[in-house]
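To whoever is on call:

I kicked off a structure prediction for a single chain this morning and the downstream step that reads the tokens threw a length-mismatch warning. I double-checked the sequence; it's 362 residues and nothing unusual in it as far as I can see. Pasting both halves so you can look.
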Amino acid sequence: MGYLYQRGNVWWVKYYVNGRAVRESTATEKETEARRFLKDREGKAAIGQAILPRADRIRYEEAAQDLRQHYEVTGQRNLEEAEYRLAHLDRFFVGRRIVGIGPADATAYAQKRQTEGASNGTINRELAILNRMLRLAYENGKLLRLPMIRQLEEAPPRSGFFERDEFEAVRRHLSEDLRLAVTIAHTYGWRMQSEVLTLELRQVDLEAETIRLDPGQTKNDEGRLVYLTPELRGLLTAQVDRVMALMRERSAVIPYLFPHLTGRFQGQRIRDFRKAWASACKRAGCRGMLRHDLRRTAVRNLERSSVSRSVAMKVTGHKTESVYRRYAIVNDADLQEATRKLAGTISGTIGVSSLDGQSVSG
């Protein structure tokens, strides 16, 4: 049998679980609420139901750490990408009790991110991380019930892509090593941050003329291997030579395909080049273009080249055809080309019919 007692103005309860005394604060100064709390605890203890620790002791930081550990152990998500999204969540939610995080907080977070210039799609990816964090806390017995975290309405898929002359113009304004990086993305549709810039020398085989991504290095966790175009073989050979020269100069092993070749970070892996990219686009007259547009362009080029969709998806790493189709962009040039092909087919049919002596008049 449990009972109530006070410490200061706050009511506490004492009850028994498997013969062991448990003392717990009700966090209220109202006796009626404290009695309801005690009855709830006694009822759960009587039927052997798990009794959660005090919710006000579980804060966002603990739940976030649990999520990081979960991703690290299971490999279900790229850790670098997850950390990038968690960094935004951390700034907003650190110090809060997870029991108090609900729809209103998610809306406030989304509004704040919008004022920072984040798109609804980006915000939704971050809210998905938050939702996964809360679900994991629920599964671990640290949260009594899951809040409803609603997604924002996203804009239609972006239709940005590069024509060849635009790509060449931007590439000319990048350093030689970054020219290789964007060419890989433009050719195979690989993701810049997690797939191209993370490449190591061991993943390049100039003799076999291949580059590969290891299982777990890609978003879908599957390995990938592609054969080099003549252009890429030349660019890769030159980059490998630059990295080897840097290793000789520093008398140190550098495993990365894309290390900083100069400056105070020399030898460390290039993790981003947003400023260099924005500058190159500006100088080439292609303001507003994204590096992810290279991935869309690669899909379109594969479609135009009549590469089978199953093979194209192996190259780009799209796991589902529905996502791949979002990248298979059709623009005015594609529609004009379709009309030219259709006109040629119709003209050819009429010509054959006339030769066969069949009427072609209306």
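Update from on-call: the warning came from a stale cache, not from the record. Cleared it. Sanity check on the structure: The chain has 14 helices and six strands.
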